[in-house]
Amino acid sequence: MTEIHGPRLEAVASKAIDVLLVSFNSAHLLARLRQTLEAAAPDGMALRLLAVDNASSDRSAEILRRYFSCDVFIQNQVNVGFGRANNQLLEHVRADYVLLLNTDAFVAPETIAMTVDYMDAHPKCGILGVRLTDRDGTLQPSRRKFPTPFTTFLRRTGLERFLPVSAARHDIDEDHASVADCDWVPGCYYLVRRAVLDDIGLFDPRFFLYFEVVDHCRRAHDAGWSVTYLPSTSVVHVGGESAKSVASLSRDRQISVLQTESELLYMRKHFGMGGLVLHLLLGVLGDLILAVKDLVKGRGFASALSRFRLTQVTWRLASRTVLGTKPTR
Questions:
Q1: Of 114, 170, 112, nearest to 142 (Cα)?
Q2: Is residue 251 over pLDDT 70?
Q3: What is the phi/psi pair of residue 45, to 5°?
Q4: Is pLDDT at 296 greater than 60 in this prediction?
Q5: What is the Cα–Cα distance from 10 to 60, expressed in whole angstroms?
Q6: pLDDT for residue 6
Q7: Are 75 and 2 in contact, with CB atoms under 8 Å apart?
Q8: How many separate helices (H) and strands (E) can be counted in the chain?
Q9: Domain 2-144+182-239 CATH (choose: 3.90.550.10, 3.40.50.2300, 3.40.50.300, 3.40.50.620)
């Protein structure tokens, strides 16, 4: 790991923000990211860039080092994952507000100022997210519910549409037009108060990728902070760009494996051994339901049998993670 520091600031203005960037093979996105950040820098607000490159094989590290004027830049020799990379920057945080910003998330000119103003006006708001859209303006789920073994089962099987209850409601069906406290907000634009980080820290390092933000929001709620969704400004989130640059992630379905592992770690951490066992058993039942649906719809035995591949992966990971207590990487 190599680390480069810009001018060390022991204190910054009370209205200041530290922007944390984690890059992995995102060189093709960084020019636009830099342009949108420059356009969104609020008047009278100090904006510090703290960046980690997660062993990119493209020019990401070089671009960040040469063109972003980072106050702190860390170049990892191996990919340590999203959560752990952000944790590397925690000791360098100086401002009252910290923005975790994905390299594939592009802010509107007013976004940073509006979200900081909201946090200033609402001191119990510990974490804030905004409206997220695709390139074409299509809404992405931007305020979300905590997953449970049961709701995960309902969504995977599609049975949620037959149960018009709040617990089974899909995130995209939530009210995205109104300011609201919610369970968690996605990490592509994740504004967090420094006092929250002093209180509960940042991400649990067991999560290599996925569920680190869900877990962090849950811990913030438990500590008495609110998590808020603000729809009055939008961020364009491209999504999946880093994974596309590594063929093995798609070919070996490595992203799905990482998500499944993090899900097991999350279920064990927040629902205990009983919750993990329930999650595993509901996974088997879900595969059986999906396999029967395939047979009924005439998709053939091979299609039905393929449904059990996720169960095989899940149970294998349950063993490798020692029943959801230890990460595999």
A1: 170
A2: no
A3: -120, 125
A4: yes
A5: 28
A6: 47
A7: yes
A8: 12, 11
A9: 3.90.550.10
3-state secondary structure of 237: strand
| CB proximity list for 172: less than 8 A, separation 6 or greater | 139, 140, 141
> Nearest-5° angle of CA 194, CA 200, CA 206?
115
- What is the C-alpha separation between 297 and 301, in angstroms, rounded? 11
* Residue pointed to by tokens 């299509």: 138
State the pTM of this model: 0.90
Range of lowest pLDDT (13-27, 98-112, 122-136, 256-270): 13-27
For residue 73, which of 58, 89, 99, 52 has the smallest C-alpha distance?
52
Do residues 107 and 237 make contact, with C-beta atoms less than 8 angstroms apart? no
For the chain, the C-alpha Rg in angstroms (whole number) is 20
* H or E segment and range at residue 149: helix 149-157
Q: What is the pLDDT of residues 196-215, one digit of tens each?
A: 999 999 999 999 999 999 99
